[in-house]
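## tool: complex_structure
## caller: assistant
## args:
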Amino acid sequence: MRYVLLVSYDGTHFCGFQKQKKERTVQSELERAAFEIFGAETKVAGSGRTDAGVHAEGQVCHLDAETNIPAEKLRECFNRILPPDLRVLKSAAAPEGFDCTRSAKRKTYCYSFYFAESELPLLERYAVRIKEKPDLERMQRAAVLIEGEHDFKAFCASGSSAKTSVRTVYSVRLTERGGLYEIRITGNGFLYNMVRIIAGELIAVGCGKEEAITAAFESGERKALAKTMPAKGLRLVEAEYGVKLFETASEE
Amino acid sequence: MRYVLLVSYDGTHFCGFQKQKKERTVQSELERAAFEIFGAETKVAGSGRTDAGVHAEGQVCHLDAETNIPAEKLRECFNRILPPDLRVLKSAAAPEGFDCTRSAKRKTYCYSFYFAESELPLLERYAVRIKEKPDLERMQRAAVLIEGEHDFKAFCASGSSAKTSVRTVYSVRLTERGGLYEIRITGNGFLYNMVRIIAGELIAVGCGKEEAITAAFESGERKALAKTMPAKGLRLVEAEYGVKLFETASEE
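## result:
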């Protein structure tokens, strides 16, 4: 029987999602808890592998297990075992044929940053400070260029194993509230470091750099674009599957 | 010469503002940095003593020192020494006769909380989870009762050394955004634990408790009110002095 989990984590002290030999990762903590719950080695898959330091509001995971525990009770079973920076928010039986990695239709990431002369201790954990005040209108004009189907080869860190670098970005939204800026990007999939490279280019353009987006789509060359932004400003907001995975809780 | 500092900290790993013999506090970290900068024992006073775990967006401090360092450069000098969870955001020469503790005219605190079935790792650091969905209208009706000049004796933890428990609360504002609730309170001063007791009573009323505010003003008895909320949801937003302490930076 396959189960689906909605998972949230503060990525600060995780070496990313994917299991590693020695490091503390989200997958290894989930699999350790699953072993305790089901009494058997249990692989936990994720909608995607977030990097070390990247956070998640709504990572979707699945696992296969034989158990009498009702699907919706798995949430509590996991949370009794998991460390406080990792929580299962919802659990359910997976739809027929569901695969959290392969079935994802859309993902949304958010990149957070702020402008200030000194670091702001209450923002530093989940956002990155920039040293110039960005021009949101310039950023907005560049953001529009990202939207649509493009070959994002130039927006990918080396070492990616993706078969094709063509992706569709459905929307790039910029907001500012109380000095905290957010870039929210929804697409059908993302290459390695793609959101952090897009964020870096948009922020650099906001701070006066000439945009190199259109040229980068044509050349496929990483070097014309600005630098990759740090992991801690990034969070996976949502993975969507075109089907309802969880009963809406009574509170919503 | 007296200098004034605008200070922000993540209170998670501080045992409060006030210096203690062995514990890590905001005041002791500031005084340690001041000693290094000025080469002499330097007392750093604060607008008020925040408790262990309470955060500050804008704590106001002062110190007396003889130095050739321009006042506005003190910010950088402190930040080169201070730990990352404590930052001086602005520094300036203090106005004539200024005392950050005695001259404060108004202070604003904010209490943050959220409702969810499981802890949300990305909110847990600066907000407190409650287990029932609060009724904001009920909370709003109770909040109005707090406003005005009252004897807040019942809203004070034992051990307070204040001469009088009469205070004026100028406003209590409730907001909700993306599931995060905030109670923002501005007053001419606050007793020990007063904001956390007010927050506890308002949240309890939002979750169905009958309000005991008016009766508590009359009786002065703590016990009719709900329990004190935890420190981590509280932050000192601002201390106001009726004079402009800092030049507005070019970015604002």
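## assistant note: The first strand of chain B starts at residue 2 and ends at 9. The helical segments of chain B are 26-38, 74-81, 136-146, 194-206, 213-219. Handing back to user.
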